[in-house]
Design brief:
The chain has 410 residues and is an alpha+beta fold. The protein is 48% helix and 8% strand. The chain has 21 helices and 7 strands. The chain has a 5-stranded antiparallel beta sheet with strand order 6-5-4-3-7. Strands 1-2 form a two-stranded antiparallel sheet. It starts with 7 loop residues before the first helix and ends in a 5-residue tail after the last helix.
């Protein structure tokens, strides 16, 4: 057909073909101006269905080194060239450098380093993780950073900087960072607030909680951090660690020192909505670190914006005092046992054929490769710990329930 193939119908035929000969045609489509930017991703994805061949590799190299207005296409082509020996492909190496410079601070930067190696990129990995906190790619960035030979220096410098709290939170999302956090806790020269943040970060995962208990069993846990540890560990329910946590990090008694009356009596008491909102928003109550009301709070546990429409006061009291009585569908706790002896715990946030992402209180996410998982089980318990009312006075609890009961569908 000569040049007459480049028509809507002709391009569709090229898109459907699964032969090495179509690679050059796909490259021409992607490099040209005959299709819109919105159409081009499907032609790029067509490469994923072509057999490995010199033609396919050559077309991808051509796209990866195109530059100009095709930078997004170049990055997509690069991602399909992972495993390339850059020492023998200087053009691809140059294209990679350009793509990394442009993608710095994004999840794509992390993906490119995952495909081609992260040597010499430690500081950039940390900077990118800080820029995309909350994205699972931030966890990947920290894992790769902790594998680098200069990780200790880069992390140490960051822990002395203005973003120490954020760095600590990120270190708590990966098992590779737990040892560094344990060292922060035990360091006599580290700022007390930074050490407290390290305790809180460790308490957000089962592996981290086990690290805290390991220090306590060895008699190495600092006395000035035990109250912080007790409060932090009380915010997440670790069924298999419950007894040890109670032994080494007992929580203080209920505020006010008085036992609660039965729920039937509590619902008769009129609370203050404004004071209840203040209880919800304060960090010590833990509500705001897991639940969201409107734009306020964290999207981890069920949203409470219309909870007053869904549940009567009696059921709201029951959910706070005994959260295991009824776990909402989609918010069940999943526990992973890893082949390397590690563990994962959280609510399934997303899942593919290759990986599973678990969320923890505060919105932190951990990504696990399914090939690393030895056992997966769904627990009958909620991640919301029982007895949260112990962190509240009776008045605070009544006000909180009054506020939640007032949140109704317009």
């Amino acid at each position: 057909m000569g040049t007459d193939w480049n028509t809507p119908a002709g391009r569709d035929i090229v898109w459907r073909l699964r032969t090495a000969k179509s690679a050059d045609y796909l490259a021409r489509i992607l490099s040209g101006t005959d299709v819109s930017a919105a159409e081009k991703p499907r032609f790029m994805r067509a490469f994923d269905f072509l057999p490995a061949s010199p033609e396919k590799n050559g077309a991808l190299v051509q796209l990866a080194t195109a530059g100009g207005k095709a930078d997004e296409i170049a990055r997509e082509a690069l991602s399909r060239l992972k495993g390339t020996d850059l020492s023998t492909q200087p053009a691809v190496a140059a294209a990679l450098k350009k793509a990394l410079d442009q993608a710095r601070g994004t999840a794509q930067f992390v993906e490119l380093l995952r495909d081609f190696g992260a040597a010499g990129q430690s500081q950039a990995l940390l900077d990118t993780a800080l820029a995309i906190t909350g994205d699972p790619a931030a966890n990947d960035a920290i894992r790769m950073l902790m594998d680098q030979p200069d990780a200790e220096m880069v992390v140490g410098n960051a822990l002395s900087g203005a973003k120490a709290d954020q760095v600590i939170t990120l270190l708590g999302t990966t098992n590779r960072g737990l040892g560094r956090l344990a060292a922060v806790i035990s360091s006599p020269t580290q700022n007390l607030e930074v050490r407290k943040q390290a305790v809180k970060a460790l308490a957000r995962s089962q592996a981290g909680a086990e690290a805290l208990l390991k220090l306590a069993r060895a008699g190495q846990f600092p006395e000035d951090l035990k109250l912080t540890a007790a409060g932090s560990l009380a915010l997440v329910q670790y069924a298999t660690l419950k007894d040890d946590i109670g032994q080494f990090f007992p929580t203080p008694g209920a505020l006010g020192g008085q036992p609660l009356p039965p729920i039937a009596d509590l619902i008769k008491i009129k609370g203050d909505v404004a004071k209840g909102r203040a209880v919800f928003e304060r960090a010590e109550s833990s509500c705001i670190t897991c639940h969201k009301i409107g734009n306020l709070g964290v999207d981890f546990a069920p949203a409470l914006s219309e909870i007053g429409t869904k549940l009567p006061k009696e059921a709201i009291y029951e959910a706070i005092i005994n959260p295991n009585a009824g776990v909402s569908m989609g918010f069940e706790t999943t526990q992973l046992t890893l082949k390397d002896g590690g563990a994962g715990l959280g609510i399934v946030r997303s899942e593919t054929a290759d990986e599973i992402v678990l969320a923890l209180p505060g919105g932190v996410t951990n990504r696990f490769r399914k090939s690393d998982v030895a056992k997966r089980e769904k627990l009958a318990t909620s991640m919301m710990p029982s007895g949260l009312n112990q962190a509240l006075s009776q008045g605070d609890l009544v006000n909180l329930v009054e506020y939640l009961a007032s949140l109704k569908k317009p």
